[in-house]
């Protein structure tokens, strides 16, 4: 996580909770035993309060204040038949959940001393329970608990360790673990060649034009020049920038270059001679700002900003407004069982490459 203060950043909290690979590591590391119900492990409000050494009223207050987030991550209020089934299994373990201030709780039962625990339990109409994700969510929210603070540190350590293990020690090329990357990187050179040939054939300008207009494309898509991008990812002079692009970003860059090459050729044929830099700049601005490109540009900025934040721990300052949490599917794409190194994918497809070579 870029922001180590999990209780201040919902994006960071959700990124951690959506990272199933890290969650599985946390399950093993923490070894928590809860109440097994409907193929999941649950903890009652009282159990969560005891674990974090806070009052049950504190837990209820956080449940009320962060209800949308906690419900999204698995907190439930059991009622009806499901509550009856839960009570049948664990009735003797949830008496302490009856002791809280009922006016502040999810428990709808008259609080009278003349009732014993079994009678009060029978009158229980609802009960709040946390699954493992919601339990971790509460740990990231609690300010009053030293145990929660310690657990947040453990979570961060495990998430970072998981990322680095999957990425082979560095997240620089974590983009290449995506299944679509190999196809994108194989197609990219031909589109790049179309663009550089167009610059060569249709633009009256020195050789520095290749770097200038490549930078203009990067700025149009993700608002950074090559030099700025390399500095953020700590790339060396030997590192090729496009080898660090996610597959869909690489495809968008290729599409942008191919489309611009086509527009340059049309303008050249209409004019009958090479374009001046001023003319190409005008053509470039018109192409970059075409309404048809906006949805793809917005998508690219969101994905680059969010993935680099969640996977590489990098913030692109010019794209900060686009940062959102990654979904579980996104984490699986780069960290799950189907994600592989580029070398592994090449070895799997070596027969295909040999056939292509022999054509």
Q: Characteristics of this structure?
A:
2 domains, 18 helices, 359 residues, mainly alpha, 60% helix, single chain
Roughly how many Å is the radius of gyration?
27 Å
Count of helices?
18
* Mean pLDDT value: 87
Number of DSSP E strands: 4
Distance between the termini: 47 Å
Helix content: 55-70%
Low-confidence stretches: 100-115, 352-357
The overall number of domains is 2
Which strands sit side by side, in order, in the main sheet? 1-2-4-3
Give the oligomeric state: single chain
Shape: elongated
Class by alpha and beta content: mainly alpha
Secondary-structure element order, as H and E? HHEEHHHEHHEHHHHHHHHHHH
Largest sheet entry? 4 strands, antiparallel
| Beta-strand content | under 5%
Structure description:
The chain is mainly alpha-helical. The protein folds into two domains: 6-166, no CATH class; 174-358, no CATH class. It is built from 18 helices and four strands. It has helices at residues 10-18, 20-30, 45-52, 56-65, 67-72, 80-90, 117-122, 132-141, 146-166, 181-202, 209-222, 226-232, 247-271, 277-288, 294-311, 328-335, 342-348, 350-358; strands spanning 35-37, 40-44, 76-78, 127-130. The chain has a four-stranded antiparallel sheet. Helix 3 (45-52) crosses helix 4, helix 8 (132-141) crosses helix 9 and helix 13 (247-271) packs across helix 14. The two termini are 47 Å apart.
